[in-house]
Queue: 3 jobs
Job 1
Amino acid sequence: MRVVAGRYKGHNLKTLKGEATRPTTMRVKESLFSSLTSMLGSFEGLNVLDAFAGSGALGIEALSRGADHVVFFEKSRQAAQVVSENLKKVNAPQDSYVIELGDALRSAGRFHAMSFDLVFLDPPYAIEPACVLEYVESLASASALNADALICYELAKKNKPACLEQAHRLKWAAVSVKDFGDTSYVLLRKGD
């Protein structure tokens, strides 16, 4: 796993061994960031939440491309240590990130003083889309999302219909949906 573009381009990132985490493949990451660049124009000045950080690859890619600040949220102490090592490896300024240890799905209340422009959700595939999207709603209810915040949700392709149905029910618009083998990612924005 390496950083694709920006100031940390080419740095190889450590990933956690075993089945505890499932790193986003390079192909998916390249496509995702291409889509994000098309929609956002730039990552400059963005506040980002990497809610199921794993190795931190998605949040680090955002920092590399100019994001101001990233909150990395990770349940596994080992994975959080890998995130820390990767941030040190790319020499990210310490004031550009925070690593939080805990269950992201129960964290929305912790962000009352923050407002995110971009949220990465790459949870274990066993977590139902309804739970993940309820978490997104709880972030919105806690005023932790800017009005035009973009949500990037990577999930098992078989769960995509349930995701899109729940998103529609909660009035989140799918602005982009892409499939890669058994994996899909959905980009969501709050609808009217």
Job 2
Amino acid sequence: MYIKTEAIVLREVEYNDADKLLDILSKDRGLLTVTARGVRRASSPLKSACQLLTLSEFTLKEYRGRLSVQEAQSIEQFRPLRDDIELLALGSYFAQATGAVAQEDAPNPELISLLCNALYALGNLRRPRELVKAAFELRLACLAGFSPDLTACAVCGSPEPDRFDLSQGALSCADCRKGETGIRLPLSPGMLTAMRYIAWCEPKRLFSFSLDPESLSALSSLTEAYLMTQLEHSFYTLDFYKSLLYYGETT
């Protein structure tokens, strides 16, 4: 049986002498693991379409419960990311985090749209990295079923609280819930406005906000901590991205 689907490559692993195992996120079939035979040969017609972070149209053959790539044509390769190691590392983190949320045989068009839009905003639109990262992380948490309650303080009902509880995904004030053991991070008014925008805006407007550099850095740290807390998962691609930033700062 042959299957035709549009999908983005989330992960690639070398296999045998010239093959690769790919994790791809399909618009209509969810997360799939497929074999791309001979793709590592220089002459392979599959080579460009089966690269990490490439959106392609795949023709897959299913045989005995396994899928292999028969044909593939790239649609979008997000080329600007491939010219900047830091952007590529951050995009790889986005892909790994997406793979942690995606499910087999569970189509999620919003998930693949989020990833592709984030990669485009990062490379083609050159939006600030911390802005794209923060928006991606919080929106991904929402799509994974961990939408935070951003309406008001969960204790006193204040519409402008100044703390965010990572484990509860709820707002609170500094004077509320004293003595509790949950991790609560400081939250400026600008950060709260940005979080509400990210969680509630239309997908096509996700990266169309601005924030001062200090607040943006704090927001990026908060959304990262929230996503890791809710998924109970760490990502080696994020560690690598941070190592590049550290190396850049010390040279």
Job 3
Amino acid sequence: MGHNGPMTARATDPEITAALRLLVVGVVLLVIGLTLGVVLEAGETDLIDVDAWWNSVVGTFAPGLLGLSMFMNTMGGGVIATYVIPLVGALVLVLVRRPWGALYFLTASAVSAGTVQVLKSIFGRVRPEEMLVISDHGSFPSGHTANAATIAVVAVVLFPRLWVALLGLGWLSLMGFSRTQVHAHWLTDTLGGAIIGAAMALIVAAAYGIPLLRERERALGP
């Protein structure tokens, strides 16, 4: 493109405002997620009682969903979530001429996963004793749920449509539920994971800012 092409033109005030809005919302969510972790670490909160209650009843009212929860355990973590989904998603975005979107997806996935691992080490929360799956150390925040939230937010940023948001919310909710049904996490772990995963996706979107938003507008229209 020439010097005055749509991807190199000077940023407009609405574009700057849109990028800043993503950053502000992302930072606010990150602060909320970190605050939740600190509160849980302190131990003096009714949320601990809510976690214990939910952990005791989550497997009793929908036992038929346990198979689906085990499937979500595979899809939401390990090689599939860490490498396959981001790489395949990025490839598809490149093929549909969304290179900034592809780079955004890869970066957001990596930053979200890295942040979760750091926080797991910092908080070191113990997982439920009834855990049905094998997992790493550190219960807060839920990495599976953070990954699901990152994917959902990335999808909405790249394709801002109501049906995309609803699908993302459904995926996130199912992932959060599944992590508690297999007793890999407390309920608040999944809440923290969702908040932090969404925060990282928004902050990375703001970092890519104008080129990412312009590419989206060029592909989808204003």
